[in-house]
Structure formats: structure tokens, C-alpha cells
């Protein structure tokens, strides 16, 4: 097979960070090449260099044996390199077709500069059909679900018919059927001799689509191998630098008294008649399809959506939660699905984000207690091993997994007692996943009640004590972990009969 | 060997100079203006003229501080000039009835704060776009100022009151002293208090701040109230300096105040802004105005120059941020 791309001795320095250190990487035509590594290993940095978003500090890039300088994203596109970034980059106020054709709108009349909307409508429709998507080209991107937005991003990248397609965690916000569809498209591209670089933290899918894998650790290329010759254990060991024995460190804990009880809860965002309770030391998993109202349960309890009916009890005392501020007072913490928009203030530094909800409490007669803030931040940066050059580092520049840990740190230091996790390990590397699970267990041991919404079946099955399944805003299934089976959960998630024992 | 060493040394010096320039670019630019104007106009470089500049700058600076607070939360306040006029004339009317000057000051501050409070409620609770809410208030406050005075200036002759605008302490004009007090307090609040830090958080992300338990609505209401309060302070300083309270006072001041904040590095997208930056912005505008006056440049042409300066200054700030 012909080498399409070779990157040689690539290094990238940021102030205070060596993100890439002498990295070699090459790509054959018709190959799906997985790029793996822990959070902050430098995966996104490497592909950003390839896509012209960053400039390499050292090294050389060859396309078909020709040395090239990729100074900007436009140059990369001209060279046939298209990227789907980890952070969605769509114009939310524009339609699907406008987004897909952004920057290359075909004109119906050159002199007047009028856009040929018929043409982009038709072509967009074709692409959407191919991807099996059911929204129209006229839909506003801002109105779509995150998963659909992700698909628009993919459609946009497919449009230029690129030779090299780079996908930075495209599956992190997709459900299983959407992922299957994406993999079909990827395999079609592969048959057409295109090359794909694929980044994902979801282990099981690497073998499903990938041909080869390159593994980065702390900015260094550890190994490149055929996926036939390496197993999951080998990959995680290369990524983390040590073997991970137990992917789900769940322990049987003593279940304590009731901490949170919800009765007949309905909110203005479509959840209906939700009742359940969570005890101290317990992890309640909530499963269901995307859009089934899982997130909305958490948001209602947290006071982020308006509760229309129903009651919430904390430690058997009825409480009124009208705003997140109330929820925080009652010791509830929300780790949201969309950590960049909702979990963090990206422009603030790590220290300010960690202490965000207790700033006021730490202050003395209104004046910030910087010393205390530093102590607290240091404590949790160490405890959660957050990888950051220092605590004054802008959160925006942290890798995804480390951002998640900062959000967690915020609620840990607020001494929350009820933790609402929404997709807690999305976009987090295997090592960090285990760390997050261990943290959950640690919290449970200390008497916290935990609710965990997750789309990952293994996570739901292995980490929960009890499981709720949602369908169209209602609970359609309740299981004890030991009785739960994936197919029963799926059945309930599709709206099947209420099953399982209470 | 020796030569190469030497050349890296000069390189080092150069980059140090560059770093220094970027760090103190505010001072460097002001220095350039001062030197240029000193060469061009014999009257520019004198104690009296500097005092004059400071006195003129103080009102714009105080309003600039008001805008800095609001802009940090990703808002805008177009009503500061009108609130200034309305607060000024109510204080003036009260003084005309023979009222006590301290009460007059309190009235100006209260009127300003109430107008600001209304702005805040419209933005935070009624969810109006800040531009629209304060545009409305801009018209309302101006209209009220004109109505209560029937369009006439109110003459002020209470010596205690006018001292605040025209008096000196140790030959430092009162407006400058008041501006310095505003500088110290507002800068302290932004840098050292939880309230200040929360404003930056809110400007960075409303939603993330709300979901962290911050009472975003309350703080936004408070921010606009501060802006109104500072407009009241500016009203006292200006009317006391003029010995009168014209209902058309402060027209267009909101634009200068926005310019001062933005030249000083505040971002209209929110989350960024510093009081010292705003001071620099106000000083740049003030020095240029003063210099152009001394040089006899027509006020028409002055507008053009000021516009160019605003654009240049913000552009330079962008470059500086890139380099950091
Ligand atoms: N613009 C920047 N300035 C400074 N440091 C940066 C910048 N961008 C990335 N970094 C740092 O470079 C390192 C590599 O980050 P990168 O985003 O490439 O990680 P990643 O492998 O994609 O991780 P993840 O799986 O979490 O997305 C991290 O330590 C990160 O903090
Ligand atoms: Mg990444």
C-alpha cells in the first residue's frame, strides 16, 4: 500500500507544555488508523498540526512523498485534508445546508452573488440520506440535538471528498445505531481508497473499524501496530504505562439511609411522573436512549429546569428547589453532559473553576481568600491528579478528560452529598475512567448518593446498584443490578413492557 | 564563538525590550502622545494643563468604570449619559429649594441607582437584550430630565456642592480625587472580592455560572445598579464643576465611556476588562482631545481623529493579546 502521509519528528511546544515530542506518524491509503492515548497525550494537537490549526515547532510533513508546509486550515483543505474537530464548530443560527456548504457556497449568478439554494438543498439531502439522517436541509442547526449536530459536522467534512479524513472523537455524543451508521460510511470511504485518522476513547469500537493503531503517551509516540496484533489490555497498558486490572472497580457497600427521594416529578422539559429514591452509598444508574429525558431528570432535581409537579425530599425532609443555587445549598452537585458550555467557565483558570461554587463562602467579608482558594485547588488537583501546568492555567486549554475532573473537583470541594453525573466518562481515557469510577465509589463510601446517567451499557451494568430505564420522559423499567441484563434494559428503553423486579 | 554569543545577547535584549513594551504598552503609548504633543504645542506640557486634562477625564473615567462592570458580564449600558443628566437635574432642583448639599448628593446617587436597578431587572428578569433595555432607559431618563426642567438648565450656587467639582484639596481638583476613589474601590471590588470574580464567571458563561449555583440574575441586577450609581456620581462631579445642571448634559458620553472601556481591553463578548485599562482608555481619549484643542484642530476633525484612535487602540490590544 502506498504511503499517503508521513509526519516525521514532529514536536510542539506550548508555553510551559511540551505537547508533542519527536512524534512519527504515517498513514496508508485505504486505511483507518486509530490514534489513541490518555487525555492530554497530544492526539488533538497532532491532528491540529496536520489540519493547519496549529503550527508545528519542529519536524516535517510529507504528502505522497512530497514535503509540504501546512500553514493554515485552508491550505490543509486544498491538500485534501478534512477534519471533524472534537469541539463542534457549527454556526448554530444557520441551517444545516448552509453549514455544510459554508465557505464553498455555489453561486447561481456570479455577478449578483446569489446562492444556488436549490443545488445545496439537493446535495445536502443526498448526503443526509446517505448518513440516514431524518432532519431536513432547512433545519436550524441550533435546534438539533447534539448527536445530530455531530452528524452535520461529519456531513460537512465528507462534502469536499477529502483524501484524508480526520475524526477527533466523533462518536462521543452518538448513540449505538448512529455509530453503526457512521462506521458504514467510514468503511465505504475506505473502499474508495480514502484514509481516515480516528480518535476515540471508546475501547470496544477500535477493533470494530480500525486497521492500525498508534498510541501516544505524554506527547511521545509509544507504538504503532496492526489492531490484529494487539488486544485491549495491550492498548490500555501502552496508553497508561501500567496495566489496568479492573476496569470497573465496583464494590458492594453498605447501603445507608435514604438521602434523596423524588415523587411524581414532572418538569417543563417533558419528564412525567418520575418517582424514585437513592440511599447513602448507592449508585443509581439511569439508562435510556438519547432524548428520553434522562438529562432532564437531573436538571429538574438540580433546579435548572422548572418543576411543574411533584416533590423532592432530602433526608426525608421536603425541599423546594427553584434554582441551582437552592440545589447547591442542599448539597446537590451536577456534573453536566456538556462540560464545555455548562460545566466550566472556559476563560477562567483552573483554580477559579474548582472553587467557583464556594468562592463566596471562602471569602471573608466579601474579600476573596486567595490563600484558601489555592490550598483547596491544590488539594483537589492532587487528589484527582488533574494534569495542568499550574492552577492558573486557563481551563480552555486543558484536555477533555482533565476538564471533566475540574468539574468534579468543583463539587467535591463544595462538599456535595448528592452527585448527579450526566455521562460522567464521555470523552475520558481508560485510565481516567477508572479514576472517575474509583472517585464515585469513594464518594459512595463516604455516604454520598449518586445518580449516573449513561449511554454506555457496560458502565450502567457494572457501576450501578440499581437501574432505571427511561422512555419518552417516563420510567419504563426498574432493575436491581444483579438481575439486570442488557437486552431487558434495551427493551425498556425502546418503550417495551415494564419488566424486572423492583 | 564570541560573536555568536554576542548576537544571542542582543537578541535577548531585543526580546526583553519587546516584552517590556508589550507589558507596559499603555504607558508607552501615552508617553508617545505626550512627547509628540509637547513638541507640537508649547502649552501642552505644563502643570496647569495636566491638571486640566485630569479634571476633564474624570467624568468619562467614572462612566467608563460603570461600563467596564457591565461589559464584563457581556452586557452594555447605553443609558449612563442620560441617567447622569436626570440625576444631575434632580439634585439641582433640590438645591434650588435651598436643600442641604449632602441630601442633594444622596438624591443624585439614589436616582442613578434606581434607573440602573430598572435596567438590571429588565435585563435579568424580563430577559430583554441589554442593548434594547438600556436604549429605552437612555430615552426615558433623558426625557424625564427635560420634562422636570422644562428644558432649562438649573443654576447651582450652593458652594458646598460646587466644591465637589470646582474645589481643590492640596491643589488637586476634587473631580480627580473622586475619580481616584472610584478607581481604588472599583478596582478592589473587581480584583479582590467574590462579587468581582463572579462577574468574570458570568461574562465567561452564563449557563455554567448558573449551574455552579451562582445567583446570576441577582448579580446582573446589582451590576446595572452599580452602573446607575456611578452615573449618579458622575452627575454630581459634572454639575458641580459646571455650577449648573443642564438637562442635555452627558449627551454622547455613553459612547466615550464604552470607548474607554474597550480601549482598555474590555471585550464586548464579556469576561474581560480591567479598571486600570479603562483609566488608560479614558486618558488616551482625554490627552488626544486636549492636544487637538491646543493645536487648534476643529472639533469636526477631532471626531475623525478620535475614531481612528479608538480603532487603532483596540487593534493594538488584540496584537498584544496574541503575543502573550
Ligand atoms: N493552545 C494551547 N496552549 C497551551 N497548552 C495546550 C494548548 N492546547 C493543548 N495544550 C496542552 O497540550 C497537551 C495535549 O493536549 P491535547 O488536546 O492534544 O490532548 P488530547 O490527547 O487530545 O486529549 P483528550 O483525549 O482529552 O482530548 C495538554 O497538556 C494540553 O493542556
Ligand atoms: Mg483531544
Automatic annotation (TrEMBL), chain A:
One of its GO terms (cellular component) is plasma membrane. GO terms for biological process: monosaccharide transmembrane transport. Pfam families: ABC_tran. It is a peripheral membrane protein. Signal peptide: none annotated. Residues 5-243, 253-497 form the ABC transporter domain. SMART domains: AAA. It comes from the Bacteria. Its main location: membrane. This is Sugar ABC transporter ATP-binding protein. Keywords: ATP-binding, Cell membrane, Membrane, Nucleotide-binding, Repeat, Sugar transport, Translocase, Transport. InterPro entries: AAA+_ATPase, ABC_carbohydrate_import_ATPase, ABC_transporter-like_ATP-bd, ABC_transporter-like_CS, P-loop_NTPase. It is found in: Cell inner membrane; Cell membrane. GO terms for molecular function: ATP binding; ATP hydrolysis activity.
Automatic annotation (TrEMBL), chain B:
It is a multi-pass membrane protein. CDD domains: TM_PBP1_transp_AraH_like. The chain crosses the membrane at residues 24-45, 57-89, 101-124, 131-149, 169-190, 219-243, 255-271, 292-316. Its main location: membrane. InterPro entries: ABC_transp_permease. It is found in: Cell membrane. GO terms for molecular function: transmembrane transporter activity. Signal peptide: none annotated. GO terms for cellular component: plasma membrane. Keywords: Cell membrane, Membrane, Transmembrane, Transmembrane helix. This is Ribose ABC transporter permease. The lineage of its organism: Bacteria, Bacillati, Bacillota, Clostridia, Halanaerobiales.
Amino acid at each position: 500500500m502506498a504511503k499517503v502521509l508521513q509526519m516525521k519528528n514532529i514536536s510542539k511546544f506550548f508555553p510551559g507544555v511540551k505537547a508533542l515530542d519527536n512524534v512519527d506518524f504515517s498513514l496508508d491509503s485505504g486505511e483507518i488508523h486509530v490514534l489513541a492515548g490518555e487525555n492530554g497525550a497530544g492526539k488533538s494537537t497532532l491532528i491540529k498540526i496536520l489540519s493547519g490549526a496549529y503550527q508545528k515547532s519542529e519536524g516535517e510533513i510529507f504528502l505522497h512523498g512530497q514535503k509540504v508546509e501546512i500553514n493554515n486550515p485552508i491550505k490543509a483543505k486544498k491538500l485534501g485534508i478534512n477534519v471533524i474537530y472534537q469541539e463542534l464548530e457549527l454556526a448554530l443560527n444557520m441551517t444545516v445546508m448552509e453549514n455544510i456548504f459554508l465557505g464553498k457556497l455555489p453561486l447561481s449568478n456570479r455577478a449578483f452573488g446569489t446562492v444556488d439554494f436549490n443545488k445545496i438543498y439537493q446535495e445536502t439531502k443526498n448526503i443526509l440520506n446517505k448518513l440516514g439522517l431524518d432532519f431536513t436541509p432547512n433545519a436550524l442547526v441550533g435546534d438539533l440535538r447534539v448527536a445530530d449536530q455531530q452528524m452535520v459536522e461529519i456531513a460537512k467534512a465528507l462534502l469536499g471528498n477529502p483524501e484524508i479524513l480526520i475524526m477527533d472523537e466523533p462518536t462521543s455524543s452518538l448513540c449505538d445505531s448512529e455509530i453503526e451508521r457512521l462506521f458504514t460510511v467510514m468503511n465505504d470511504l475506505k473502499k474508495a481508497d480514502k484514509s481516515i485518522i480516528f480518535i476515540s476513547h471508546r475501547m470496544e469500537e477500535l477493533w470494530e473499524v480500525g486497521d492500525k493503531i498508534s498510541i501516544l503517551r505524554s506527547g511521545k509516540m509509544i507504538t504503532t501496530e496492526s489492531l490484529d496484533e494487539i488486544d485491549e489490555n495491550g492498548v490500555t497498558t501502552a496508553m497508561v504505562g501500567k496495566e489496568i486490572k479492573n476496569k470497573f472497580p465496583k464494590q458492594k457497600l453498605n447501603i445507608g439511609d435514604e438521602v434523596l427521594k423524588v415523587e411524581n416529578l414532572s418538569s417543563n422539559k417533558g419528564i412525567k411522573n418520575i418517582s424514585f429514591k437513592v440511599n447513602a452509598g448507592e449508585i443509581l444508574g439511569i439508562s435510556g436512549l438519547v432524548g428520553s429525558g434522562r438529562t432532564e431528570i437531573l436538571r429538574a432535581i438540580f433546579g435548572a429546569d422548572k418543576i411543574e409537579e411533584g416533590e423532592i425530599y432530602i433526608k426525608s425532609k421536603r425541599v423546594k428547589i427553584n434554582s441551582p443555587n437552592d440545589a447547591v445549598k442542599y448539597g446537590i452537585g451536577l456534573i453536566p453532559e456538556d462540560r464545555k458550555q455548562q460545566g466550566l467557565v472556559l476563560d477562567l483558570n483552573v483554580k477559579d473553576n474548582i472553587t467557583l461554587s464556594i468562592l463566596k463562602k471562602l471569602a471573608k467579608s466579601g474579600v476573596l481568600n486567595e490563600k484558601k482558594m489555592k490550598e483547596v485547588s491544590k488539594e483537589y488537583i492532587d487528589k484527582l491528579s488533574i494534569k495542568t501546568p499550574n492552577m492558573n492555567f486557563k481551563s480552555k486549554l486543558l484536555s477533555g478528560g482533565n476538564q471533566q475532573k475540574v468539574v468534579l473537583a468543583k463539587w467535591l470541594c463544595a462538599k456535595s452529598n448528592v452527585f448527579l453525573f450526566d455521562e460522567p466518562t464521555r470523552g475520558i481515557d481508560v485510565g481516567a475512567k477508572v479514576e472517575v469510577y474509583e472517585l464515585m465509589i469513594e464518594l459512595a463510601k463516604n455516604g454520598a448518593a449518586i445518580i449516573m446517567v449513561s449511554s454506555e451499557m457496560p458502565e450502567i451494568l457494572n457501576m450501578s446498584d440499581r437501574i432505571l430505564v427511561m422512555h419518552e420522559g417516563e420510567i419504563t423499567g426498574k432493575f436491581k443490578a444483579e438481575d439486570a441484563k442488557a437486552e431487558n434494559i434495551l427493551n425498556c428503553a425502546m418503550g417495551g413492557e415494564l419488566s424486572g423486579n423492583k | 564563538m564570541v560573536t555568536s554569543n554576542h548576537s544571542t545577547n542582543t537578541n535577548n535584549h531585543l526580546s526583553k525590550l519587546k516584552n517590556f513594551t508589550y507589558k507596559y504598552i499603555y504607558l508607552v503609548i501615552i508617553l508617545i502622545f505626550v512627547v509628540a504633543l509637547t513638541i507640537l504645542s508649547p502649552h501642552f506640557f505644563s502643570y496647569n494643563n495636566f491638571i486640566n486634562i485630569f479634571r476633564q477625564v474624570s467624568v468619562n473615567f467614572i462612566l467608563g468604570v460603570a461600563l467596564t462592570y457591565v461589559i464584563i458580564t457581556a452586557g452594555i449600558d447605553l443609558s449612563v449619559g442620560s441617567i447622569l443628566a436626570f440625576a444631575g437635574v434632580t439634585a439641582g432642583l433640590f438645591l434650588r429649594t435651598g436643600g442641604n448639599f449632602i441630601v442633594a448628593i444622596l438624591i443624585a446617587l439614589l436616582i442613578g441607582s434606581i434607573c440602573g436597578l430598572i435596567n438590571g431587572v429588565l435585563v435579568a428578569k424580563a430577559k430583554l437584550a441589554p442593548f434594547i433595555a438600556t436604549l429605552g432607559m437612555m430615552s426615558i431618563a433623558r426625557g424625564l430630565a427635560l420634562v422636570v426642567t422644562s428644558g432649562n438648565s438649573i443654576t447651582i450656587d450652593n458652594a458646598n456642592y460646587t466644591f465637589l467639582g470646582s474645589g481643590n484639596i492640596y491643589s488637586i481638583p476634587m473631580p480627580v480625587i473622586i475619580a481616584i476613589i472610584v478607581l481604588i474601590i472599583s478596582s478592589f471590588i473587581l480584583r479582590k472580592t467574590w462579587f468581582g470574580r463572579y462577574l468574570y464567571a458570568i461574562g465567561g458563561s452564563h449557563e455554567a455560572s448558573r449551574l455552579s449555583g451562582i445567583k446570576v440574575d441577582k448579580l446582573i441586577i446589582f451590576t446595572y445598579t452599580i452602573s446607575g450609581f456611578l452615573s449618579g456620581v458622575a452627575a454630581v462631579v459634572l454639575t458641580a464643576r459646571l455650577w449648573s445642571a443642564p438637562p442635555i448634559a452627558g449627551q454622547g458620553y455613553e459612547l466615550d465611556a464604552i470607548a474607554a472601556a474597550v480601549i482598555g481591553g474590555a471585550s464586548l463578548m464579556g469576561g474581560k476588562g480591567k479598571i486600570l485599562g479603562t483609566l488608560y482608555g479614558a486618558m488616551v481619549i482625554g490627552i488626544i482631545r486636549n492636544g487637538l484643542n491646543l493645536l487648534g484642530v476643529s472639533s469636526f476633525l477631532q471626531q475623525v481623529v478620535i475614531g481612528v484612535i479608538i480603532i487603532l487602540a483596540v487593534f493594538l490590544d488584540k496584537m498584544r493579546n496574541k503575543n502573550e
